[in-house]
Design goal:
The structure holds two protein chains of two kinds. Chain A is mostly helical. Chain A has 41 helices and eleven strands. The chains are: A mainly alpha, B mainly alpha.
């Protein structure tokens, strides 16, 4: 060490302090890094420690409670008796078991002594046999080898065998004896084992019985099971818990090439069935953490869903979103950062996760919010502008089939021209062979033409169906001149939501001059007539009754504010009298599908009487007369509304219309609108109507083929955020400032959810601060009439509508009955069947909640359709759906329940829709397809007599409630006519029905308990008429057979008799 | 929108940009620190020059020597202990850095959607910024190659024998200024511009201006020949019939040579002046061979072209000086 000089800065400066400080800091940093390594980057560790603590505490509280419950059960007399039986049976079996044990023990010892010697001998013999087989039969070598085998078999083996009394004896065997002894012992052993099982069976069965009893009585897990869980919790292995899913087809998906790795359970420990079994539910409050915001320990709230979507196959993140691999922070694991494209759905949107695989379903179980979103998308007319895969696209299909028809017709024309040309060429042909060929080609062309005709006809049929299926969200605007008060139109366009607060029509952003132009175009483009028939006034009071009784209120409501009564599927009719013309209303109520002029898609115009007159035809067009007189193509002969015909008489229609016309405010008046006839406004109006896409929801003259105006939304949820134009709000969205200037409670809303929510709440919001002098450049989307809940439902639906990130086989595309159910829901919701009927369990129809159907009036409700598929014959159902009046002539009635005032309407379903509905009901009731009616045994004469007696027995006067077709009697009837049963019902269901109707339709008027079980058959439970007493067979079955073979004559006879007995009884 | 401090914070706080924020402070600090050392050495040299006796005995280069000090000190412990301390401090910094800021990973690449702004890693941002001013061929290939070659030839063109192994300003003025200009002014400043100034659409955003993705900017950059109005009509008279159609192209290519040559002459003369500014530099200049002089001139003329081009672009909106069908400068 050189000598130091105090004044030399290099040598004399001391580094002690900086070194000490640095080393200290380094140590601190090392400690920090270790902490970060174990806890900072692994927050799940702390969660696991905490979970282990609180869960153990919870289990410790639960165990004594469950022990107590168990004790109570074990001390019950029933259990004790069962337990006693078990013990007695065990006692009875014991002596024999002991004997068996002793003998099998002895056999085992003998076998043990014998086996070695036997295997040795067998080895030797089989080896020799093998060697012998190497030589062909007959050779000397074979003979000598054979001699060797014989020799070996004669060899003597001495075996020391134990005897029953415990000594050992030496026995000598040759090979064959040895083998026989060995096999004997084995056989005896097997016999003993079988016998042992036999002896043990009674106690085993009793024990099972006892344990089952215990299981049935026990609520929740047993104390032993809880102790097992407690043990698991107390010795919780603090480690990453991950679910691995390796789909067979990795495809392109966010599983990545390594399959799905979800580590969510590392923090959400309650969802791990090894810790919290599925049979147990755990919520934060159970753990004493009700108020904590950082306790991810609850078990999955919907175990039903988990059973269908097992974590082994689905993991977590495919449904919920989030970054399943990330563990270093809650934010990252939930994927709520810029660079993770599939963030965790917020609680209010979590059903969006269902949509990815259930995109094709109208109704997804367990997902009411998503279903509501889809329903709104369709019913509020979003679909009018925004295409969505799987939703109604009849207009596109009509267009496609029209183009196909045009093409085929062109082909046909060409071929027709070709034929004479070929014939002519054949005449001029130089030789016979050529002529023959040309003629053959001409002949072939005629066949081709007939094929084309067949194909065109097919397409026409399809168009016909499509025309029936095509529905618009709004009413047809072709009829405005007949329907509307002229002055009302501009008012409506400017004050849509004020005039009708619950309307589906959105409010467009329109300037006054635009309103004038649009109204003028609408008014002037309406069809001019033929004028409507002048209708005499009806009785408004009777009309109100009919309105309330016929079922109009299943879809329509009346009343304002909190007094709204009725369904919201269709318009609220409160102010309808202010705008609608009486004559038109009468026609509309009588048959809403009736058009003033039919529309020809080929000529692209509405035909008038003059077109028919040209061809000498009467001006008649309806579903039977639906071909164009000019070109023979299928016409649109109906108004594209979902509103069905209620088959009312003209008089009833007038009454209802008279009532509706009274629905108006007294002071309502609208400014006169003379400009509406100004032809100069028409063109401008047309451009505006095109610009705003009015034709998406309304039928408008000249704009029948308008394409959808908006963006297709099928995969809107996975649109990159950069493609969503937040415009001047971009920076605000990124910084969590809402359009109204307030701070967003959840921080930044620069994501799909934020975009959708703001757009739906106020579609013009992204025009904020934009300079758009031409109003046509502004965002076109009108403000939908939706509540905050609706917005959330629609947002959920859109968020879930993504490019599938999962392999194809994860998509819900069932091939079985479930497919029929899904296909049917599209129709059921389209026509609002659920307004009148209960279609699935737990659903309430609109009518059920109306005041006029409460209490005793419940019997006036339409029938619930939950068991419909099991109840009726599908062929009959198809027939009924096509014609609910069940008659070609008498239309003013219900075909089945003629006694109901509420009317099953005629929907004019297309064949395809009927087919789907029939299959839907069959599938919903788990019925096999196709249905073949069973053959019923014919009745013998005695049986008929017995059946008659039962049928008319005073204890069960069937015909008192069931209709008979006699108007006087049917006045008070509350059930269908028996004559319909043969075609309509399924015998098996009918039997179940008469045995216990309340089980199938709770609250039905049909009495339960008509039969009691005696032995293996059912006996009528009322006092038995004399002739019935001798009848030994099943009474219920007899009645069903009788019902299915009932003839009108028989029924007439019975009614006569019923009257007679009733008379004599009095 | 101005005065947007949130935007500033967002840029500065990005893990990607941390090295550049550090660079903003570290580079000036070390320049200052090196200068301090250099000036101290210069004072020592002055001291020694006045005292030839001392110069004979003195070897230490850092502190002005005082009588009684050792002539030399050992590496161990006097150097090692400082290096050890530095190692500890750097370790601490790196550890804290890596604990607090995770690697800035992004979402899976989407070929249909490029990020905006798409920025190179920070150490390449200077190159990316150069693309604004030059043809990709020049900025992306020629310039980087020349930078590497230039760095490689330094030992071979350096005719100054002084200043090895110690900090000095006076003895290496030319080298220091060249370095400061090339590295600090051109390289670091371009990185800083690329990081803090260039926003969406690679548009120029002043600090505290909001990086608005929807921003539209009106800017027309024109070639010098367009400004002057060269359209080849005059040249067309001189050309044979077959080449008449391409006269604008040829005219442009010929026209561009003139300003370029002018620049080269002016720049070379300026560099020549700088090289001969002081008596000391003249002495060094005389020691250089012709090859060395030419190499230095070529490299420096090219280096100087970068700021010249930047100024032309930013001030006069000139896109290219010399336009040929194959490349443009």
């Amino acid at each position: 060490m050189p000598e130091t000089h105090s004044d030399d800065p290099i040598q004399s400066r001391s580094f002690t302090v900086p070194l000490l400080v640095s080393v200290f800091l380094l140590l601190l940093t090392v400690a920090w890094s270790l902490y970060d390594e174990f806890y900072g980057l692994r927050p799940w560790r702390s969660y696991q420690h905490e979970f282990a603590k609180v869960y153990a505490q919870y289990l410790n509280n639960q165990i004594p409670r469950q022990q107590n419950r168990e004790k109570l059960i074990r001390e019950s007399a029933e259990y004790k008796k069962l337990d006693e039986q078990v013990r007695a049976a065990e006692e009875a079996a014991r002596p024999r078991l002991r004997e068996i044990g002793k003998e099998s023990d002895y056999i085992d010892r003998r076998l043990a002594a014998l086996t070695d010697r036997f295997q040795e001998a067998r080895g030797k013999v089989t080896a020799l046999v093998y060697t012998m087989e190497l030589y062909p039969v007959g050779t000397n070598s074979r003979k000598s080898k054979f001699a060797e085998v014989e020799q070996a078999k004669k060899e003597i083996y001495a075996v020391e065998l134990p005897t029953p009394d415990g000594r050992v004896e030496t026995k000598k065997f040759v090979y064959d004896q040895l083998e026989a002894e060995f096999n004997n012992l084995k056989a005896r052993k097997a016999q003993l084992v079988a016998e042992q099982g036999e002896v043990l069976r009674p106690p085993k069965e009793l024990r099972e019985q006892r344990d089952n009893y215990f299981k049935e009585k026990m609520e929740g897990l047993t104390a032993d099971q809880l102790k097992g869980l407690l043990n698991a919790a107390e010795h919780l292995d603090i480690s990453i818990r991950q679910i691995n899913v390796n789909p067979t087809d990795p495809g392109i998906n966010n599983f990545g090439s390594g399959g799905l790795v979800d580590r969510c359970q590392s923090c959400h420990l309650g969802t791990d069935p090894k810790l919290v079994p599925l049979a147990m539910t755990l919520i934060k409050a159970d753990l004493g953490l009700a108020k904590s915001k950082d306790a991810p320990f609850a078990s999955h709230p919907e175990t039903e869903l988990l059973k269908i979507h097992t974590t082994e196959k689905f993991g977590c993140s495919p449904c919920h979103g989030g970054n399943g691999r990330a563990l270093d922070s809650v934010r990252r694991a939930h994927g709520r950062y810029e660079h993770w494209l599939w963030p965790l759905y917020y609680a209010e949107n979590y059903q969006a996760g269902c949509q990815q695989c259930h995109a094709a379903d109208m109704l997804t179980e367990h997902a009411p919010v998503l279903n509501r979103g889809k329903d709104l998308y369709r019913s509020r007319g979003c679909i009018g502008c925004h295409k969505f895969e799987g939703f109604d696209d009849q207009s596109e299909q009509i267009l496609a089939s029209r183009q196909a028809i045009r093409q085929l017709e062109q082909e046909k024309k060409d071929d027709e021209l070709e034929i004479p040309r070929l014939n002519k060429a054949a005449d001029a042909a130089p030789d016979n062979e050529t002529a023959r060929k040309l003629n053959a080609r001409a002949t072939n062309l005629t066949v081709t033409i007939s094929n084309i005709d067949a194909r065109i006809e097919q397409l026409e049929q399809k168009t016909r169906s499509l025309f029936r299926e095509e529905k618009k969200v709004g009413p047809s605007l072709k009829e405005v001149r007949m329907k509307l008060l002229k002055e009302w139109i501009p008012y409506w366009l400017g004050h849509t939501h004020e005039f009708r607060p619950a309307t589906k029509m959105p409010q467009f952003r329109l300037e006054q001059d635009q309103i004038q132009a649009i109204a003028a175009f609408i008014w002037q483009s309406g069809v001019p007539g033929p004028a409507l028939a002048k209708q005499p006034p009806g009785d408004a009071g009777r009309g109100k009754q009919l309105f309330e009784a016929r079922g109009c209120m299943a879809c329509h409501a009346v009343g304002e504010g909190s007094n709204v009564i009725g369904g919201d599927f269709a318009a609220n009719l409160s102010h309808v009298g202010e705008k609608a013309g009486y004559d038109y209303l009468v026609r509309w109520v009588h048959n809403p599908r009736e058009r003033t002029r039919p529309f020809c898609p080929f000529e692209k115009r509405d035909l008038g009487p003059e077109d028919y007159a040209k061809h000498g035809l009467a001006y008649v067009f309806d579903l039977e007369h639906s071909r164009c007189p000019n070109d023979g193509h299928e016409l649109q002969v109906q108004q594209p509304t979902v509103m069905p015909s209620l088959r009312l008489t003209w008089e009833e229609a007038r009454d209802i219309a008279s009532y509706l016309i009274t629905l108006k405010r007294k002071d309502a008046s609208y400014e006169l609108a003379p400009d509406l006839d100004d032809p100069r406004l028409k063109e401008r109006g047309r451009a505006l109507v095109k610009n705003y896409g009015c034709a998406g929801c309304h039928e408008i003259s000249g704009l029948e083929d308008e394409p959808r105006l908006g963006t297709e939304l099928t995969t809107e949820g996975s649109k990159p955020i950069e493609r969503l134009d937040f415009a001047r709000l971009t920076e605000d969205a990124k910084r969590g400032v809402l359009p109204d200037g307030k701070e967003s409670p959840r921080g930044p809303w620069y994501d799909q959810k934020g975009f959708f929510e703001q757009k739906l709440a106020s579609p013009a919001v992204y025009d904020k601060d934009k300079y758009k002098p031409d109003p046509l450049d502004r965002l076109k989307m009108p403000k939908p009439n939706v509540t905050a809940d609706d917005i959330n439902a629609l947002t959920t639906f859109l968020l879930g509508s993504v490019d599938p990130q999962l392999p194809q086989d994860y998509m819900y595309k069932p091939g079985d009955a479930r497919h029929d159910v899904q296909a049917g829901w599209w129709i059921v919701t389209k026509y609002n069947c659920m307004g009148c009927h209960q279609v699935h369990i737990g659903q309430q129809s609109v009518l059920q909640n109306l005041p006029q159907y409460q209490g005793d009036n419940k019997i006036k409700l339409p029938p619930p359709l939950i068991p419909e598929g099991a109840r009726v014959d599908p062929n009959w159902l198809a027939h009924f759906l096509d014609n609910p009046a069940m008659s070609k002539t008498d239309l003013n009635r219900n075909g089945v329940r003629s006694y109901l005032e509420v009317r099953m309407p005629t929907f004019s379903f297309s064949d395809d829709e009927i087919q789907k509905l029939v299959r839907f009901f069959a599938a919903a009731s788990s019925q096999a397809q196709p249905y073949l009616p069973p053959k019923l045994e014919p009745l013998t004469d005695t049986e008929r007599t017995v059946a008659r007696q039962l049928f008319t027995s005073p204890a069960a006067p069937c015909l008192k409630c069931h209709a008979t077709g006699d108007p006087a009697h049917d006045k008070d009837a509350t059930a269908p006519n028996f004559l319909l049963a043969r075609e309509r019902l399924k015998p098996a269901w009918t039997l179940r029905w008469i045995l216990d109707p309340a089980r199938i339709v709770p609250g039905t008027a049909m009495p339960s308990g008509l039969f009691r079980k005696e032995g293996d058959h059912w006996i009528f439970s009322g006092p038995l008429p004399p002739s019935v007493q001798g009848y030994a067979k099943d009474h219920a079955d007899l009645l069903v057979r009788y019902m299915f073979q009932l003839t009108p004559e028989e029924q007439l006879m019975l009614t006569g008799r019923t009257a007679a007995t009733a008379g004599s009884g009095e | 929108m101005w005065g947007d401090w949130h935007q500033v914070w967002e840029i500065v706080s990005q893990p990607d940009n941390v090295p550049i924020v550090a660079l903003l402070f570290l580079v000036p600090f070390y320049v200052w620190y090196a200068c301090r050392q250099a000036f101290a050495t210069d004072r020592l040299i002055a001291q020694l020059e006045t005292d030839p006796q001392l110069a004979k005995t003195h070897h230490r280069k850092v502190f002005p020597w005082k009588a009684g000090w050792d002539r030399e000190v050992h590496v161990w412990p006097y150097l090692m202990r400082i290096e050890f301390l530095a190692a500890i401090i750097v370790t601490i910094i790196l550890m804290v850095w890596s604990i607090t800021l995770n690697a800035p990973l992004e979402e899976p690449a989407n070929p249909n959607l490029t990020m905006n702004p798409a920025k190179a890693p920070w150490y390449f941002l200077g190159l990316q910024e150069m693309l604004v001013y030059f043809d990709p061929w020049i900025a992306g290939v020629v310039m980087p190659t020349l930078i590497i070659i230039g760095l490689m030839v330094i030992p071979y063109v350096d005719a100054n024998p002084l200043g090895n192994g110690y900090y000095t300003y006076r003895q290496r003025r030319f080298a220091i200024w060249t370095f400061l200009f090339g590295f600090l002014f051109l390289w670091v400043i371009m990185i800083v511009i690329g990081t803090f100034i260039r926003g969406p659409g690679w548009m120029w955003f002043w600090p505290t201006q909001t990086w608005d993705h929807n921003r539209l900017e009106f800017a027309v950059n024109r070639n010098l020949d367009q400004i002057v109005g060269i359209d080849g009509s005059w040249l067309a008279h001189l050309l044979p019939q077959t080449l008449k159609a391409s006269s604008p192209i040829i005219a442009r290519a010929i026209f561009g040579i003139f300003p370029l040559v002018l620049y080269v002459i002016l720049a070379a003369y300026l560099i020549h002046l700088i090289c001969n500014l002081t008596a000391f530099s003249r002495k060094i200049y005389k020691r250089m061979t012709l090859l060395q002089i030419v190499t230095v001139q070529v490299l420096l003329v090219l280096m100087l072209s970068l700021p010249v081009k930047i100024l032309l672009r930013l001030l006069f909106r000139i896109k290219y000086i010399w336009v040929t069908p194959w490349f443009s400068i």
